[in-house]
Amino acid sequence: QVQLVESGGGLVQAGGSLRLSCAASGRTFSSYVMGWFRQAPGKEREFVSAIRWSGGATYYADSVKGRFTISRDNAKSTLYLQMNSLKSEDTAVYYCAARNNILLVTAAYNYNYWGQGTQVTVSS
User: Fold this and answer.
1) Can you tell me the distance from the alpha carbon of 101 to that of 19, in angstroms, rounded to the nearest whole number?
2) CA-to-CA dists, residue 42 to 3, 61, 63, 102, 117, angstroms
3) CA–CA dist 53, 72 (Å, integer)
4) Are strands 118-123 and 10-13 parallel, antiparallel or unpaired?
5) Distance of CA 5 to the CA centre of its chain
């Protein structure tokens, strides 16, 4: 059973930084893609970034490209999202997700496993 547990959310001023973590367990993730999604109040869940666990290929939404960096630590089975130059529009609940396939995709329905989410609030 795959388990994903996010941490690192919080309140930060616009222009600041946060690093989200997602501890993954229950599988060997070498054939997985891991992703970050977010959902703001009243909006649909949207893709933020994804990484192929083996090899490290990455993909970003245009809205975060150049500001956010996704990475993973194989030894710790942990996924990260470094968020810099945060804007008020980045405010959302951020979810970690896992997909048992090596294709980097952005649609949420393609991801099989989800964490419980962590709140990120950016004050302007």
Assistant:
1) 25
2) 27, 20, 18, 31, 16
3) 7
4) parallel
5) 11
Token pair, residue 28, equals 């060997």
Rg (CA), the chain: 13
User: What does the pLDDT profile of the chain (124 residues) look like in tens digits?
Assistant: 899 999 999 999 999 999 999 999 998 888 999 999 999 999 999 999 999 999 899 999 999 999 999 999 989 999 999 999 999 999 999 999 999 999 999 999 999 999 999 999 999 8
The CA-based angle 71-72-75, given to 5 degrees, is 155
Is there a contact between 98 and 29 (Cβ–Cβ < 8 Å)? yes
Neighbours of 95 (CB within 10 A): 23
Strand partners, 47: 37
Of 111, 86, 91, 88, give the one whose Cα is nearest residue 32: 111
